Amino acid sequence: MIKIPFKIIFLLHVLVVSSCSSLDVLKENYQNFLSTSSNKFYVVEEGDSIWSISIKLNLDPQLLISNNNLNKPYIIYPDQKLALYKYSNIQPSFNKDYISQWHHPLKVNSKPAKEKDSWLVYKESKGTPIHSIYQGKIVVSGPDIPGYGNLVMISHPYGYLSLYAHCDKIFVEQGDEVGKGAVIAHVGNSEAPHPMLRFQLRKGGQPVSASGINF
Length: 215
Prior knowledge:
Elements: H1 6-18, H2 23-38, E1 41-43, H3 50-57, H4 61-67, E2 81-83, H5 96-99, E3 113-115, E4 119-122, E5 129-131, E6 136-142, E7 150-156, E8 160-170, E9 177-178, E10 183-187, E11 197-203, E12 206-207
GO molecular function, one term: metalloendopeptidase activity
Protein name: LysM peptidoglycan-binding domain-containing protein
Domain LysM: 40-84
């Protein structure tokens, strides 16, 4: 028995169902099929980490880890093909009351500017203490992700991640458990034009809109 490749079956199905005689329409349907299939995988590039990939693609790092059966310390290699978790642009739900209980990342009177809807940028002097907004575990500590300088990333309960970019001195290491309000670093200008803290909150891998964050 001759086996017909799935892609050929798909093309015949499109042609029959849509009664399509136009090659342009057929080509468009085929390209859509390819793009849908291709976003299920990611080919690791030089310098990538599980955390940088999750930020780049807005994925939950824990799901990326489990999908690929990775074990600590989650080492990946260039050209390695990683299975992605059902990619979605849907903004995950989050509990505003829960967030309101968290500690301000800097001083209570520090007012941020919004950047690209999901980042809060605080312009404070170098050396200003940076606090963990809630209890959690340090998953990134240092210049591990290009573009963010010295970065601290903390995993919190209920699928939340907090990111603190462009730090100067960092006082925590990967794997440390920290409490709410703990000093984790100082404001700096690593990979930044001037001293600042770029802060982002994520839920299930997706950035939470800055307009919904009030400390």
